[in-house]
Amino acid sequence: MKSTDRFELPITGAGAAAAETYDRYVNEFLSYGPELRCLFDAADENPGAPLLNAHAAALHLAFEAAEGWTASAPYLAQMQKHEADASERERLFCAAVSAWRRRDFARTLDALDELTVRWPADLCAIKWGQYHAFNLGDAATLLRFGERARIVHENAPYAHGMTAFALEQNHRLAEAEDEGLRASEIAIDDAWAHHAVAHVMETQGRAREGARWLDHCAHTWEHKGVFIRDHNFWHAALFRLALGQETEALAIYDNYLWGAWPEFPQEQIGAVSMLWRLELRGADVGERWAPVVAEARKHAEDHLFPFHDLHYLYALARAGAPQEADAFIASLEVRAQKDDTGVWGGVALPVAEGLVAFLRDDHETAHEKIAPALPDLHRIGGSHAQRHVFVETLEACMKKPRRAAGVFEA
């Protein structure tokens, strides 16, 4: 049994109804819609379809926490059971997901790169490729995937937004803005394109224009998934901070950045990042740290992505939990010993030590630890805008030491 998807690519072991559900999932994935879970039903009802089960496993892994790894296991087992029956393109996607679950992210990226060179019609695989390139801090590969999307899917909804963000991360700002605006004309609800244009405006210091741009787009996010809604409002709050409007940024935090899905790591990271920035500017955030810290504690042993870990650690250290912060550093050292890329030991670990020193008012040590790591900081993942908080922290080290306002004692 074999059907095809909207790009006329085969789906082994799936009937017409399953292929239709897969197409719905692809559209939700590309548009950041809220109905991604429809794929789980298709995978459950079609255990002999390795591609469907591979994508179901990928969705769980993209939760970006240990529980996602656990939840992916049944789908991965079904995928592997029927992988030999799949087409070569499908087997490449299965290989990518298998490597992902082994935490071999470089191999995951290589498999998706090969797949999309040979079958660039697979826009969903291109999007997954960009996801992994971004997490690895590989801006050049991010753009290679984006160019495939633009060339093969000219005028298709959501393709140009993918290219726009890749161009921005490669410092091609004018092109990125043009692509983002074009993407928004093709699909007014292209929230990733809205995000790309916001990045350009943030990089160029166009805070007032950026705030207006996101305010103009925000009505289209009402029916989007939590990640993009949270993240675009995070950018809206960032523009308010640039304008000196801390009260407005706090209002955005309360209304949009915390509480929709507190268990979701991306919501936690966005919350940590915004509270961190607010306090660097001297704002009193009251008791807002407490629930964020409670969630961050749950990921102290994950060590999946260094970018995530640095935010979890900051939350713990900020909460005045010295034993937990020291234990986190110790476990990072163990993680670094198992890493052959140098990212964990050469970048994440010294920055982590610097952040703890900063929050203990040892600004000299903080500067000594963080400053040498900055040239390689892109390797931890995250965007330019997201990583800028480390630069702001370094700048704060050179100012008069002070304890942040309203410290929550854990």
Task: Tell me what you see in this structure.
There is one protein chain. This protein is an all-alpha fold and 410 residues long. The chain has helices at 16-31, 38-45, 50-61, 66-82, 88-101, 105-118, 123-135, 139-152, 159-169, 173-186, 191-203, 207-217, 226-242, 246-257, 265-280, 289-296, 306-318, 322-337, 343-359, 363-370, 384-397, and strands at 2-4, 10-12. The protein has three domains: 1-131, Alpha Horseshoe (Serine Threonine Protein Phosphatase 5, Tetratricopeptide repeat); 137-257, Alpha Horseshoe (Serine Threonine Protein Phosphatase 5, Tetratricopeptide repeat); 258-410. It has a two-stranded antiparallel sheet. Helix 18 packs antiparallel against helix 19 (343-359). The chain is globular and about 65 Å long.
SSE blueprint:
Blueprint: E1 2-4, E2 10-12, H1 16-31, H2 38-45, H3 50-61, H4 66-82, H5 88-101, H6 105-118, H7 123-135, H8 139-152, H9 159-169, H10 173-186, H11 191-203, H12 207-217, H13 226-242, H14 246-257, H15 265-280, H16 289-296, H17 306-318, H18 322-337, H19 343-359, H20 363-370, H21 384-397
Antiparallel strand pairs: 1-2
